Structures are given as structure tokens and as C-alpha cells.
TrEMBL record:
Protein name, per record: 4-hydroxythreonine-4-phosphate dehydrogenase
Species of the source: Halomonas piscis
Cofactor(s) it depends on: Zn(2+); Mg(2+); Co(2+)
Similarity-based family: Belongs to the PdxA family.
Note: The active site is located at the dimer interface.
Gene name, Swiss-Prot/TrEMBL: pdxA
Catalytic activity: 4-(phosphooxy)-L-threonine + NAD(+) = 3-amino-2-oxopropyl phosphate + CO2 + NADH
SUPFAM superfamilies registered for this protein in UniProt: Isocitrate/Isopropylmalate dehydrogenase-like
Manner of cofactor binding, per the entry note: Binds 1 divalent metal cation per subunit. Can use ions such as Zn(2+), Mg(2+) or Co(2+).
InterPro entries found in the cross-reference section: PdxA, PdxA_fam
PANTHER family per the UniProt record, alphabetical: 4-HYDROXYTHREONINE-4-PHOSPHATE DEHYDROGENASE
Binding-site residues for substrate, renumbered to this chain: H143, T144, K295, N304, R313
Length: 352
């Protein structure tokens, strides 16, 4: 892991622009046009494409190329850009798998900048998994897993949080609108989930979650509650044996280590004010079990945080929205939350 060779707040958040046919490029431009990016921010993408999108949308933004390690250009409407060039021209709303390597190239550039001490953190705009796969990367499953492999770590954890929860550190949640939800498994077909929820994986994920709630979010003694895998948390083995055979022994072992982790509880009743008021995060067993509730509570104003990396990475809570691309209708709120969170987490990490 590269050392953090910089002064707090002095280095930019690197914002990858995501799938070029999606809304990512225009969201970055919208934040820049509205003055909502932190002063130390830099886009990672194709400057010509960004300039064309800004002109088409009537945004007074001038994407200006620069290089990592150099001072960022400044001035009215200037958006600094670390260049990564498209592989083929891109039209909003029209996927072209030829640009798969471009999208992955923006991620690689941001990771390299973070690890080299040229960026404080990275924030990612949405990509399109199908276009990446069709572009010659059949094993691709998403940002989270790609970053795990790029950074050479064994396990990472996907956690999403609503904007209000990102500011809370200990007072407890008032209700379902304030949520932090971490996942034991991420982008897997549902039929594969039960086999993937092993005792060792559950324990690794819970340890990373507790560690980063303390280190990144400043929660001195994190309180975590775990969902069951099956309906009614297995109903004592009558609706599935995973709780009895795997989840309960793993959670007991975590509690024996001194961790405040509760459950497993039925997921259909766990996401209620009575249960959430006394915890700092929910640990869901699979993607839609936790994220369907979180996105209902705070879609468009939540952020995705990858825990367990040697760098700070945040992202939006939505996809590429090809139907909205190029029309100026997509809200940049989630990207704004993600960039602001990346700045806060990076400053906390560097100060610590």
C-alpha cells in the first residue's frame, strides 16, 4: 500500500465519469456548473467528450486537461480533467461495448492516482456492466469487485448509506429514512447466494464493517444488526437451515470477540424504527434484501462506500439511466453526496 504523502485537504477527489453513453458525464458537468464540487476535484475522462456534452446541454463549463501531480487549473467554469480517451465516439443513450476499456481505464487512472498520492479519494459515476462484459471482460461483476482485485485485497464490503445517516455518528436512527446497509454478498444470482454466505465470509465482512465504521465514520463502538437469510430467519430450521448451521455460530463467534453484532433477525421486520433506533448499521445477506429498503428510503440522495480498501472510494446509488442521458433531466444529487462524502472520509483518514 502506498503511503499517504500529502497534507489534509490539499489533494483532489478524482471523479470517474462512468459509462460515456449514460448520465455520468453530464452529472459531473452539472455539479461543476452549479458550483457544487469541492474546490479540489478533478474529473477522469475524455475532455473532448465532456466539452461536447457541456455545449449540448448549455452548461458554462470548460473541461481543462491536466496531469496527476500538477496543480489543478482554476477559473470561472473550469473543470479540471485527467484525460483518458474514448476508444470510439459516444452518443448519449447508445451503448458501445468498444468503450469498455475506456471505462475501466478511468477506474485504473483514479486508483493509480490515489495509490501514488496524487488524489485524496475517488468517486465513481455509474457504469454499465453489460457493456463491460460485451466489450471483452466476461468476468466483470461491478465496481466493487474490480476495485478489490485492483487493490490486491482479499475482501471488500459494499455499504450504502442515506445522506442523513452519513452525518450521524452515534445518536441512533430516527427511522427507515436514516440507514447504513452493508452486504455479505453483492452481485450474485439469487440461486448462488446461499452457498456464498459462509461462516468465514460473514465474519470477514462483519469485521471490515466494524473496523471502517470506527476508523472512517468515527463511531467508537459500532452496533451492527444482521438479517437472516431465509424468511422469518429460518423459523428455527423449519424454513431453511442456514441460520442454524452458519449464521448463528458465526455471529456467536463475533460476539465472543467482543463485537456488538445482533441477530440474525427476520429481514421483513428488522427495517423498522424500533430495531434501527439502537444500531449503527444493518448487515444484509444479499443485494436486494438490504438495498431495496435503503433505496426506497433515500434513492437519489444516498452514497455507496467500498469498505476494506487501502483508499477511499464512494459512488452513486443509481445506474446509467440511458433513457435520460443527454437530456439534462438527471439529478446530480447522489453524485454530489458521494463526492462530499469522499472528501470528508479522506480528510478524516489523513488526519488520523
Amino acid at each position: 500500500m502506498a503511503e499517504w504523502r500529502h497534507v489534509q485537504g490539499s489533494l483532489p477527489v478524482a471523479i470517474t465519469t462512468g459509462e460515456p453513453a449514460g448520465i455520468g458525464p453530464e452529472l459531473v458537468l452539472r455539479l461543476a456548473a452549479d458550483g457544487l464540487l469541492p474546490s479540489a476535484s478533478v474529473a477522469v475522462g475524455d475532455p473532448t467528450m465532456l466539452a461536447e456534452r457541456a455545449a449540448a446541454l448549455g452548461l458554462g463549463v470548460t473541461p481543462t486537461p491536466c496531469r496527476p501531480g500538477e496543480p489543478l487549473p482554476e477559473g470561472p467554469g473550469v473543470l479540471p480533467v485527467w484525460p483518458v480517451l474514448l476508444k470510439a465516439p459516444s452518443t448519449p443513450g447508445v451503448l458501445d461495448p468498444t468503450n469498455a476499456d475506456y471505462v475501466l481505464g478511468t477506474l485504473a487512472a483514479a486508483v493509480t492516482a490515489c495509490r501514488a498520492g496524487h488524489a485524496a479519494a475517488m468517486t465513481t459515476a455509474p457504469l454499465h456492466k453489460g457493456a463491460i462484459i460485451d466489450g471483452g471482460h466476461p468476468g466483470f461483476t461491478g465496481h466493487t469487485e474490480w476495485l478489490r482485485d485492483a487493490c490486491g485485497v482479499e475482501e471488500v464490503v459494499m455499504m450504502l448509506a442515506t445522506d442523513s445517516a452519513l452525518h450521524a455518528t452515534r445518536a441512533g436512527f430516527d427511522g427507515p429514512s436514516e440507514l447504513r446497509v452493508a452486504l455479505v454478498t453483492t452481485h450474485l444470482p439469487l440461486r448462488d447466494v446461499a452457498d456464498a454466505v459462509t461462516a468465514e465470509r460473514l465474519k470477514r465482512v462483519a469485521r471490515i464493517l466494524e473496523h471502517d465504521l470506527r476508523e472512517q465514520f468515527g463511531i467508537a463502538a459500532p452496533r451492527i444488526v444482521a438479517c437472516g437469510l431465509n424468511p422469518h430467519a429460518g423459523e428455527d430450521g423449519h424454513l431453511g437451515h442456514e441460520e442454524v448451521d452458519t449464521l448463528i455460530p458465526a455471529l456467536d463467534a463475533l460476539r465472543a470477540e467482543g463485537r456488538d453484532i445482533r441477530g440474525p433477525y427476520p429481514a421483513d421486520t428488522l427495517f423498522t424504527p424500533r430495531h434501527l433506533a439502537e444500531v449503527d448499521a444493518v448487515l444484509a445477506m444479499y443485494h436486494d434484501q438490504g438495498l431495496a429498503v435503503l433505496k426506497y428510503a433515500g434513492f437519489g440522495s444516498a452514497a455507496n462506500i467500498t469498505l476494506g480498501l487501502p483508499l477511499v472510494r464512494t459512488s452513486v446509488d443509481h445506474g446509467t439511466a440511458l433513457d435520460l442521458a443527454g437530456k439534462g433531466l438527471a439529478s446530480p444529487a447522489s453524485l454530489g453526496v458521494a463526492v462530499a462524502l469522499a472528501r470528508r472520509l479522506a480528510d478524516r483518514r489523513m488526519a488520523g
